[in-house]
Specification:
GO molecular function: oxidoreductase activity
Keywords: Oxidoreductase
Strand content: 5-15%
Distance between the termini: 37 Å
Number of helices: 4
Number of strands: 5
InterPro entries: DVR-like
CATH superfamily: NAD(P)-binding Rossmann-like Domain
Number of domains: 1
Radius of gyration: 16 Å
Structural class: alpha/beta
CATH class: Alpha Beta
CATH topology: Rossmann fold
Length: 120
Amino acid sequence: VLLSPFGAQKPLLHFQRAKLLLEGELTSPDRADLLHSIVRPTAFFKSLSMQVGKVQRGSPFILFQRDDGSCMRSNPISGVDLAKYMVDCFNDVGRQNAVLDIGGPHEPISMKRQRELIFE
């Protein structure tokens, strides 16, 4: 089970490119006998909470925008829920040899709205 970033199919950062290369290795026809699950969470609550601390210390809030200028939306997932989902990949045949995008249980919110909530 590989944890990969949501949006890895359009990598902007070095670690995204590295994950995409690893995904390519896992999904290669040469490795057809290797069972795998590639899990791509939209966002982690942990990473958002780390950003809150940085903002409180004076760092800027980082917004990711689409090419058209609109704000990205996500529905963060807790680390516990993500870990459970990943462990369940071992037993769920429907999750094998698949790329699985996953988010939290709530409706997605924009990064702009996330910023507003942090500053409230």
